[in-house]
């Protein structure tokens, strides 16, 4: 119904008598102070984009180190990553005293003490959750004035914009922070820090990892430094104290400061770097470089999500997509173990007139680190490949990046990375670096106020959201500098390679010929190389039975662990992993589940053999079901569908393509057995997928997912369409198969 105003006679609110309203003391003080202020000496020509009132970000990012000045409103709490013990000490700080808990009324211009000026907002921790709420006086919060040199010169006019009343929201954990605790955090942020001992000490001081699980999977989604989470939360509180001021006047210069800090970590020109929510966002932007008639190549080691991006983009614009197969060389030291030979193999498989290559620096599934800058990119450039997109999601901190040192022939068009993995930032943060020649070609998939104003302007703002993760980056950069990049890499790489060797020997399996510094594949024991089992089942068994978090991958028909090593891992965890895997392997061999599946397979093979004998004799098996009764109409006979036996379907398919000559019984039997086994595995995996998706009907979605997971890439990409129909026909001939799946 259309809105109808309420008649004045029926309104319950009394009229506002504007002539009788008087300003309270605090607003009178603000008004008096405003009358003393004067206009700015200079009027900026740049008016900003949208409603922003900050400086031109393109000018800020282009400034050299000598002339660039950090934001005056950069808060002191964001200077350094604090450890958990430091945060606990701050929480146990003595109650605030009268000297800094109240402000005399009527003295709006009184300068506060350093401790008052460093008063900051809350954070969440297990300690804070246990503390009772501390009632604080309406003393002004000085977050807005906490710059590098102005903590002693903050007036009440500034502090009224961020009072405790506004900073302390309804969240009890935020209110648990006393003014003294906030002051303590400010003081700690200015103190020097010593490198933390790697291993258990690092875990207890900087990560919130549950002791109930053994985590050997940092490569999946990373893990956030506790001190970085604190900075992010404090920024949220700071923003909500006066959100318009923060977003319009402070946010963009702070993001520029973060980009410049990250560029120092990457050894890159900040004008070529932008921050992103994650690598997926950046790769979607990079895929726009693919245009009509492009010849695009990718490796079969590519991440599934990136493959889908490429495939959909090529379908959209009319480009061709070609696969370079490298997984088959996983255990071949002569190819995978040699950078020159590996590059030669890539170039050998490169399609003619290739224009674009998408590749990983560190692969996700197979944990391979490719010689991207030293060998592959120069070789691709020599062969005329113009556009090279590198997915470096796992690269930051795991490998040293130095974009300034790259010669032109070694530079990718775009390099995309994640910061929440090994860099250990809060979720979600990523970046990309763009070659200078391609800066004008890069555009965001989300356009807003900065569209068309330059690379940074286009990517710096994609709408209102939490930017606290971006703003924690400078402190994280300094944190890893203090810990020592080489020290961290030496510890992790040594632990990883030693653990991989130990596990390989214990499992009596083959070594992989290449692995990343912090990640590696380890082939599982033969007891778990069973066609009746799936990677998901093994991983879930390790998780549910042994309480160990480690991914299991299926590559070229074999199962592998993908182990990770990071600053908090210790050798005893890999000993535990070894014992857990061997225990699960023994349990699987004797499990009722395996016996049931094995019996089911024997039954299927026996039925297939009998049918093949009939086919060889020229007697195709008719479908089951009653014959139509005399007098039934044509419609009834049409609606009564006859099922077609799978072997007969295979026989007819072979006859379609092999029209000359005859088919031997052995040929039909071998092919039928192979395809039945393959489809049984697809069906089993699809049942697992259906359980995860909580559906009771197997659909094309489950079949396509299973085909992609189980089949070699060159077959899986065809199974996306034709494979769905074939599997559906196969299941129709075996109506009991889905019911036995247990859904």
UniProtKB/TrEMBL annotation:
Q: What is its main location?
A: nucleus
Carries keyword Nucleus? yes
GO molecular function list: DNA binding; protein heterodimerization activity; structural constituent of chromatin
Pfam families the record matches:
Histone (PF00125)
Q: Does Protease count among this protein's keywords?
A: no
Q: Where in the cell is it found?
A: Chromosome; Nucleus
Q: Report the residue ranges that make up the Core Histone H2A/H2B/H3 domain in this protein.
A: 632-709
**GO CC annotations on file:** nucleosome; nucleus
Q: Map out region (Disordered) in residue numbers.
A: 610-642
InterPro entries under this entry? Answer: H2A/H2B/H3 (IPR007125), Histone-fold (IPR009072), Histone_H2B (IPR000558), HISTONE_H2B_site (IPR055333), PyrdxlP-dep_Trfase (IPR015424), PyrdxlP-dep_Trfase_major (IPR015421)
SUPFAM superfamilies in alphabetical order: Histone-fold, PLP-dependent transferases
Q: Which UniProt keywords apply?
A: Chromosome, DNA-binding, Nucleosome core, Nucleus, Pyridoxal phosphate
PROSITE patterns documented for this protein = HISTONE_H2B (PS00357)
Question: Tell me, how does this one assemble?
Answer: The nucleosome is a histone octamer containing two molecules each of H2A, H2B, H3 and H4 assembled in one H3-H4 heterotetramer and two H2A-H2B heterodimers. The octamer wraps approximately 147 bp of DNA.
Which family is it part of? Belongs to the histone H2B family.
* Name under which the protein is recorded: Histone H2B
Species of the source: Leishmania donovani
Organismal lineage:
Eukaryota, Discoba, Euglenozoa, Kinetoplastea, Metakinetoplastina
């Amino acid at each position: 119904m259309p809105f109808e105003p309420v008649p004045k006679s029926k309104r319950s609110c009394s009229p506002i008598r504007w002539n009788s309203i008087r300003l309270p003391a605090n607003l009178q003080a603000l008004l008096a102070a405003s009358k003393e202020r004067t206009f700015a000496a200079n009027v900026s020509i740049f008016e900003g984009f949208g409603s922003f009132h900050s400086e031109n970000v393109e000018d800020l990012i282009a400034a050299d180190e000598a002339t660039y000045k950090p934001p005056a409103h950069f808060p002191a709490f964001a200077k350094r990553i604090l450890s958990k013990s430091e945060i606990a000490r701050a929480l146990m700080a003595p109650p605030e005293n009268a000297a800094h808990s109240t402000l005399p009324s009527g003295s709006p211009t009184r300068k506060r003490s350093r401790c008052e000026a460093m008063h900051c907002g809350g954070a969440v921790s297990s300690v804070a959750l246990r503390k009772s709420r501390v009632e604080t006086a309406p003393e002004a919060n000085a977050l807005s004035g906490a710059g590098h040199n102005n903590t002693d010169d903050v007036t009440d006019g500034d502090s009224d914009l961020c009072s405790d009343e506004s900073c302390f929201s309804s969240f009890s954990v935020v209110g648990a922070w006393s003014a003294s605790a906030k002051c303590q955090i400010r003081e700690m942020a200015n103190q020097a820090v010593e490198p933390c001992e790697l291993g258990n000490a690092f875990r207890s001081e900087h990560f919130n990892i549950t002791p109930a699980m053994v985590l050997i999977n940092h490569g999946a989604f990373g893990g956030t430094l506790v001190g970085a989470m604190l900075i992010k939360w404090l920024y949220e509180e700071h923003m909500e104290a006066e959100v318009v001021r923060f977003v319009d006047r402070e946010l963009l210069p702070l993001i520029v400061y973060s980009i410049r800090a990250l560029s120092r970590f990457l050894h890159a020109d900040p004008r070529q770097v932008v921050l992103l929510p994650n690598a997926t966002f950046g790769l979607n932007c990079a895929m726009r470089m693919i245009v009509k008639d492009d010849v695009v190549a990718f490796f079969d080691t590519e991440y599934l999500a990136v493959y889908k991006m490429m495939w959909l983009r090529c379908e959209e614009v009319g480009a061709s997509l070609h696969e370079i197969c490298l997984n088959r060389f996983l255990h071949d030291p002569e190819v995978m173990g040699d950078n020159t030979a590996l590059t030669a193999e890539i170039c050998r498989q490169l399609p003619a007139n290739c224009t674009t290559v998408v590749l990983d620096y560190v692969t996700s599934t197979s944990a391979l680190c490719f010689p991207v800058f030293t060998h592959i990119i120069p070789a691709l450039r020599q062969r005329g490949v113009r556009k090279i997109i590198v997915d470096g999601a796992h690269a930051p901190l795991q490998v040293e990046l130095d974009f300034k040192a790259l010669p032109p022939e070694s530079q990718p068009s775009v390099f995309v990375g994640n910061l929440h993995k090994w860099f250990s930032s809060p979720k979600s943060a990523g970046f990309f670096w763009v070659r200078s020649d391609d800066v004008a070609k890069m555009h965001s998939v989300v356009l807003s106020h900065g569209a068309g104003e330059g690379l940074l302007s286009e990517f710096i703002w994609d709408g209102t959201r939490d930017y606290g993760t971006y703003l924690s980056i400078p402190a994280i950069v300094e944190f890893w500098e203090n810990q020592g990049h080489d020290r961290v890499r030496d510890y992790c790489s040594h632990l990883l390679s030693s653990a991989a060797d130990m596990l390989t020997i214990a499992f009596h399996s083959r070594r992989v010929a290449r692995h990343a510094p912090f990640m590696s594949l380890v082939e599982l024991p033969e007891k778990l190389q069973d066609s009746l089992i799936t990677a998901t089942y093994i991983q879930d068994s390790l998780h549910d039975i042994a309480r160990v978090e480690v991914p299991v991958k299926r590559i070229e028909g074999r199962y592998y662990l993908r182990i990770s090593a990071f600053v908090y891992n210790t050798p005893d965890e890999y000993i535990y992993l070894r014992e857990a895997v061997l225990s699960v392997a023994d349990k699987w061999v004797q499990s009722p589940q395996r016996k049931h599946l094995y019996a089911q397979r024997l039954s299927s093979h026996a039925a297939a053999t009998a049918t093949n004998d009939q086919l060889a004799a020229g007697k195709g098996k008719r479908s089951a079901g009653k014959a139509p009764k005399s007098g039934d109409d044509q419609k009834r006979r049409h609606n009564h569908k006859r099922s077609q036996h799978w072997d007969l379907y295979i026989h007819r398919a072979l006859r379609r393509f092999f029209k000359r000559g005859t088919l031997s019984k052995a040929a039909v039997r071998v092919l039928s057995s192979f395809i039945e086994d393959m489809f049984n595995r697809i069906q089993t995996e699809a049942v697992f997928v259906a359980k995860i998706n909580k559906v009771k009907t197997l659909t094309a979605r489950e079949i396509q997912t299973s085909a992609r997971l189980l089949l070699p890439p060159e077959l899986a990409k065809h199974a996306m369409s034709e494979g769905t129909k074939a599997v559906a026909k196969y299941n129709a001939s075996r109506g009991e198969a889905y019911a036995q799946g247990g859904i």
